[in-house]
Design brief:
The termini are far apart. By secondary structure, the chain is mainly beta. It has 2 helices and 10 strands; from the N terminus they run αββββββββββα. The relative contact order is 0.09. Strands 1, 2, 3, 4, 5, 6, 7, 8, 9 and 10 form a 10-stranded antiparallel sheet that branches.
Length: 175
């Protein structure tokens, strides 16, 4: 074999390697957090020395290191003057904070309630917030708006773009 043929074949082989072969694509796998516990039709009770603080129920959920993720969530807070209940399609319960999503319904023992598509509740502070539209109902009174802020401890309510129907009492009703 002639040396020229050898180098020609070697050159063609190297050109073929550079032209035809592509580097291997390695897909990056996302680090997916694994739940510590899978829950089905469950109830979680939070107890302190002063008694029952809260109850969380759900049709299914997952327990992670720092939170619960719950479907068909039903959260009841008994740590304040009024018993408060929140229901939603999905909730993330992280420490004393509850993030509620889809079909949120908040109800308090004195008859105050609100509906929204999302809400945030801080159990320690007794504060419920929504960013989007909401409807508050108490007795025959109804208020619609956006960006609700409700502090159940201090009785403070703030909102934007508020419209509503409110029943005024007459002197006759007060006696």
């Amino acid at each position: 074999m002639n040396v020229n043929y050898f180098f020609s074949i070697l050159t063609l082989g190297l050109i073929a390697v550079f032209m035809l072969f592509r580097p291997m694509v390695i897909e990056k796998q996302e680090k997916k957090e694994i739940a510590l516990l899978d829950l089905k039709k469950f109830t979680v009770y939070e107890l302190k020395q002063s008694g029952l603080q809260s109850v969380m129920k759900g049709s299914s959920g997952e327990r992670y290191d720092n939170r619960y993720e719950v479907y068909d969530a039903n959260f009841t807070d008994n740590s304040h003057a009024y018993l408060q209940n929140m229901v939603s399609d999905f909730a993330r319960y992280q420490g004393e904070k509850v993030y509620l999503e889809r079909n949120v319904h908040y109800a308090r023992a004195d008859g105050l309630s609100f509906m929204s598509d999302e809400a945030f509740y801080n159990q320690k502070k007794g504060v419920a917030k929504t960013k989007g539209p909401f409807t508050v109902v108490q007795n025959q009174d109804k208020i619609d708006g956006t960006a609700l802020y409700y502090n159940s401890k201090k009785g403070i309510v703030k909102a934007k773009k508020v419209t509503g129907y409110y029943t005024l009492k007459t002197k006759k009703d007060n006696h």
